[in-house]
Design brief:
This protein has about 150 residues and is of the alpha+beta class. It has helices at about 5-20, 80-95, and strands spanning about 25, 30-35, 35-40, 45-55, 65-75, 95, 100, 110-120, 125, 135-145. A hairpin with a 2-residue loop joins strand 6 and strand 7 (about 100). The strands form three sheets. Strands 1, 4, 5, 8, 9 and 10 form a six-stranded mixed sheet that branches. It has a two-stranded antiparallel sheet with strand order 2-3. Strands 6-7 form a two-stranded antiparallel sheet.
Length: about 150
């Protein structure tokens, strides 16, 4: 069966590359500071795993395709910050140019056969009760097959 961890690691690295900001996996990202690992300052993204879908041969067959779904939450202090970050995420994950995908998503021993943006907050960021944190949610599905 296709392993999820290499996809998660590659997707995290790509989000960090395209945004230039830290990306945490399931939690607030941490960055190396003067006194060790410290919480990242805003803006940043958080990548969460969502339920997956499988097609092809039975799951015990390593040739089975897998569609791994993720949620990318852009977090900032202002709506314009998170919309800017979400624009970068969208363009980097599903953006295309004349040669195909705008950014390569390289995963060891796997071939990415599809990328799909399945949900986008559509310019309606969520503001916390205190008004200090704004977030913007996007969901993407990455379909892979063994290389």
């Amino acid at each position: 069966m296709t392993a999820r961890l290499p996809v998660t690691r590659a997707l995290t690295a790509l989000v960090e590359q395209i945004t230039g900001r830290p990306c945490g996996v399931g939690e607030l990202p941490r960055v190396q500071g003067k006194s060790g690992w410290e919480p990242a300052t805003v803006p940043y993204t958080v990548l969460d795993s969502l339920p997956a879908e499988f097609t092809g041969p039975p799951l015990w067959d390593w040739h089975a395709d897998a569609a791994w779904s993720y949620q990318v939450t852009s977090v900032g202090e202002r709506a314009d910050q998170v919309e800017w970050l979400a624009d970068r995420v969208r363009a980097g994950l599903v953006g295309r140019d004349d040669n195909g995908w705008a950014y390569d998503l390289r995963i060891p021993q796997l071939r990415v056969i599809d990328r799909e943006l399945t949900y986008d907050a559509g310019g309606e960021p969520s503001v916390s009760a205190a008004g200090a944190i704004v977030s913007y949610v996007q969901r993407v599905t990455i379909t892979v097959t063994p290389a």
